[in-house]
Structure prediction request, 314 residues.
Amino acid sequence: MTRHGHLSLSKGVHQRLKQISAATIDRLLHDVREQAFGGQHRRASGVGSAIRRAVPIRTFSDWNDPLPGYFEIDFVHHRGDGKVDSELVHTLVMTDIATGWPECLAMPFRSGAFVLEHIEQVRRALPFPLRGLDCDNDSAFMNETVFDFCKATGIELTRSRAYKKNDQAWVEQKNGAIVRRLVGYGRLQGLEATEIFASLYKVSRLYINFLQPSFKLKSKTRHGAKVTKHYESPLTPLERVLRSVSVPEATKRKLRTRFRAVDPLDLLSRMRKHSSTLRPAVNAAPRRPRQRHLTALPWRNSWSASEQRGRTAR
Prediction:
C-alpha cells in the first residue's frame, strides 16, 4: 500500500509493523473485528454453550455398574472418502451400558428433530425403561429440544468431554463392530438409501440382541506398562436383560417367547438381501475396518461362513 501511494508511514512505524507478531495483531484488532462481524461468534454459540453448561459431564470411569436403561448415543456419518455435508445419511447408534443392548436407526440427514423422534421410537421398543442418555457435544444433541424432552420425561442427560472419544467407549465400539461391518465405509445419500438402512437395522436388531454374544470388561489392572484385562463370560444382550433383577418377570416371559420364534438363518438371509440392495447405492469403495472390536459378528468374513456358523451355534 505504501509502494502504490495508498498509505504514508513514518520510518519508525514502518519498522514496527515489520516486527509485530501475529498474536499482537490479533489482540490489537480484536475490537475492530468484533464490530466488523457484528459479534456473530458470540451470538451463534450462546444457546449451545448455555445448554452445555447445564448438562453435566460423565467420563468413561463414572458409570459404576448402572441399571439397564442408561445409553451412550452417537452418530455415524456415511461419507465415504468425500467431504462431510448435511445431506449425508447418518446412523444414530444407542448402546446400553449394563446389557450391551444396541439400537441403530437411519436418518436421511443429521437433525435434532430426527434425534428426538428416534429416541422416542427406541424408548417405546425397549424391554426396560430409558433412564439416561450420554452424548457428545454435537449440536444435534446439545439443543433446547432434546434438553427439554429429557427434563420433562425424567431422563438423565449427560455429555462426554470434548475431543475425548474414550468417554463414549461403549457406543464407539458398536459404531465399528456393528454399523461399519454391516454397511462399510461408503458414501450414502438420499431417502432410498435411508429406507434400505432402516429395513436392514430392523432385521439386524433381532439378530444382534437375541443371538450375538459379546464380551464385557470385568476388571482391568495395570502393572507398570502392562495392562491386564479380565472379561465376563460372553452373553447376548438378551441374556443380560433376562439376568437383570430390575426387569419385571412379565417382560422376561415375553422376551423368551419372542426368542423362541426367531429363526437365525432367516434373519441372516434377510440381512444379506438388504445388504445386496444397499450395495449399488454406495458411491465409494469401503475401507477395511480395523480389527480391534470385541463383538464377534458372524458376517465378519462372508455370508456363507456366517450361515455355517449359524447352523452349528444353536
About this structure: The mean pLDDT is 83. The chain has one domain: 52-313. The beta strands are 70-77, 90-96, 102-107, 132-135, 156-159, 217-223, 226-231.
